[in-house]
Amino acid sequence: MLHTSSTNSAPRLRIAVPMSAKRARTTYAITRAARELAADKGYDEFTLDELAERAGVSRRTLFNYFDGKLEATLGGGPQLTQDDIDTFLAGGPTGEFVDDVAALVLGVLRASTEVPLERDDWLIGQRCFTANPKLIIAAQQDFEGFAEALIELLARRSGRPAADPEHHVLLGVLAVTFKISLHQFSSGDVREIADIFLDNLKTVRRIFG
């Protein structure tokens, strides 16, 4: 199954464990194939045998990487590296709270896949989830648990309770900003998604002064 681990930093926070290049490529190939099949045929309509054939692996290999079809299609889910967590809790990387939370969000983007995603990968992902509402629900549940863990990290860094509305508002604004940035990227913006996100974050800060 996918190499992740839990941490005492916060509940339900997945820590990305470095993979070999071969394992990273195979993990990517399986999830890419699962999303292609879900987009083209529907999530309920393709079999594990079809997935293995499309990904170029054996059925047995599938279960060495993922627990099942749902996990393969969703991918590894949101993760962070321990280094990014430690840097954030230590007051970095910039020393400015909002910028450091934004850096943590981008850290999730980096840590959640060992193979850099191209524009086509994002487009296939969008087609996959749009065509299969049950996957949207599963991904949303996955993200909500991870977001709770991020809130705990923000609370530890700020010294304020996790229930402080500022933590939730900040994370919500960053999530919406990232969603808008992803739409721009998928719609043909030639910049890297991280650059789009950071530029949009500047716009948010300018709007709210």
UniProtKB/TrEMBL annotation:
Coiled coil: none annotated. The keyword Ribosomal protein does not apply. It holds the Pfam family TetR_N. SUPFAM superfamilies: Homeodomain-like. Residues 24-84 form the HTH tetR-type domain. Residues 47-66 bind DNA. Gene3D superfamilies: Tetracycline Repressor, domain 2 (1.10.357.10). Keywords: DNA-binding, Transcription, Transcription regulation. It comes from the Bacteria. The keyword Ribosomal protein does not apply. PANTHER family: HTH-TYPE TRANSCRIPTIONAL REGULATOR RUTR (PTHR30055), MYCOFACTOCIN BIOSYNTHESIS TRANSCRIPTIONAL REGULATOR MFTR-RELATED (PTHR30055:SF238). This is TetR/AcrR family transcriptional regulator.
